Amino acid sequence: MAILKVVGMDPALRNWGMVRGGYDTETGELHLGESLLATTENTESKQRQNLLDIHDAKTLFEAVYPFAKKADVVAIECPVGSQNAAAMKAYGIVIGLIACLQVAGLRTVITTPLEGKAVITGKKDAKSNAALNITKKEVIQWVQEHHPDVPLPRYKRHGEMLVNMSDAEHIADAVIALHAAKSRLVL
User: 103 and 95 in contact (C-beta within 8 Å)?
Assistant: First the structure.
């Protein structure tokens, strides 16, 4: 039985979700027990914007690379574009950081959001999945059902620990990226 060390990622400039664990090449099962949400803050500053952007990219790399560097393979749901100039800048920074991971020698498998939807729906037809509006709640529920050991960000309210949906979304998408990449994890 071979167990690959795997990392799943849902990259974004403000919230980069990651999970880490093992992939059993014989059974096809993922065992995920660690997660990390790397964040940057949209700060108002008198510094030049390009210096703030470099700081954000460096902050993310300092969290992302150590989390992934011992992995045999990293599955990344790659963003597919942007709606405005600020989103395009964030997209460029994320793409650049993914390239840095590759240059650093990490083996990456790039997945798309449509492949992620197919994991949830079970439908392989891209047109069918493109039309679906899968909510972050549905993605998180799927991850909780299939990977109850994945630590999701939580908060306490009235003595009860609840899932922080906005933060957990990024961890859940990292899990989905690994599932979408399953057929490509083994060389």
Answer: no
Cα distances from 94 to residues 23, 39, 115, 137, in angstroms, run: 25, 13, 19, 24
From the CB of residue 73, how many other CB atoms can be counted at a distance below 10 Å?
21
What does pLDDT average to in each consecutive run of 10 residues of the chain (187 residues)? 94 97 96 96 83 94 98 94 88 96 98 89 69 83 96 93 94 97 89
- Three-state SS at 56: helix
**Length of the chain in terms of residues written:** 187
Cα–Cα nearest to 94, from 80, 106, 83: 80
Contacts of 55 (CB under 8 A, 6+ apart): none
Count Cβ atoms within 10 A of the Cβ of residue 65 and give its class: 0-12 exposed, 13-18 middle, 19 or more buried: middle
Judged by DSSP in three states, 139 sits in helix
Enter the pTM of the model.
Answer: 0.93
